[in-house]
């Protein structure tokens, strides 16, 4: 019996399931929310311990046991946040996380306030994405409008290119018909018009 069969070295590596970019964005942003909520709880406990130390003068922190996670987002709110996350384009996922972390560091919110802060960041990003899409749509409309107006002007200018062909009879034409046209100098091309 070979040693390789024990360690499964000869098995092919497991493939990562193919998920859509939207699913990956939702999962990444919700993981960030959960992590920031846990960190906010941890900081809240540390602040409470510091307050107790100052108030009593004694540290009983070693006696206290904390639950794993005391605050949890309600299922309805979680679904709303996931729905908002689906509106975030994958290229905005990183900037949203950075903005969220920046606001967390700036405000140091309680655990219950983290989801509201997250919602405001998602709304801000969705508004920015909508503004950019509107600007692109307007630019596309402008370019389409300009192309059509340019094609009309080029069509009009093409119809006026031939100045020698004219249906209007003038006195100078009658006079010129009676005389022989003068020969041009060799460096100049000779223009003949046919009627």
TrEMBL record:
Q: Which GO terms describe its biological process?
A: retina development in camera-type eye
* Superkingdom of the source species: Eukaryota
Q: Which InterPro entries does the record associate with it?
A: RD3
Q: Which organism is it from?
A: Dryobates pubescens (Downy woodpecker)
Report what the protein is called.
Answer: Protein RD3
């Amino acid at each position: 019996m070979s040693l390789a069969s024990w360690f499964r070295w000869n098995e092919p590596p497991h493939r990562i399931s193919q998920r859509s970019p939207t699913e990956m964005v939702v999962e990444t942003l919700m993981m960030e929310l959960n992590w920031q909520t846990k960190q906010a709880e941890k900081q809240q406990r540390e602040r409470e311990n510091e307050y107790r130390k100052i108030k009593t003068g004694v540290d009983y922190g070693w006696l206290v046991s904390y639950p794993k996670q005391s605050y949890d987002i309600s299922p309805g709110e979680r679904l709303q946040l996931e729905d908002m996350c689906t509106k975030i384009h994958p290229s905005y996922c990183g900037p949203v996380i950075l903005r969220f972390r920046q606001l967390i560091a700036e405000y140091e919110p309680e655990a219950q306030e983290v989801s509201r802060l997250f919602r405001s960041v998602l709304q801000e990003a969705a508004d920015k994405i909508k503004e950019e899409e509107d600007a692109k749509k307007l630019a596309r409309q402008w370019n389409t409008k300009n192309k059509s107006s340019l094609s009309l002007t080029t069509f009009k200018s093409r119809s006026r290119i031939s100045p020698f062909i004219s249906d209007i009879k003038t006195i100078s034409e009658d006079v010129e018909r009676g005389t022989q046209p003068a020969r041009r100098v060799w460096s100049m091309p000779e223009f003949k018009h046919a009627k």
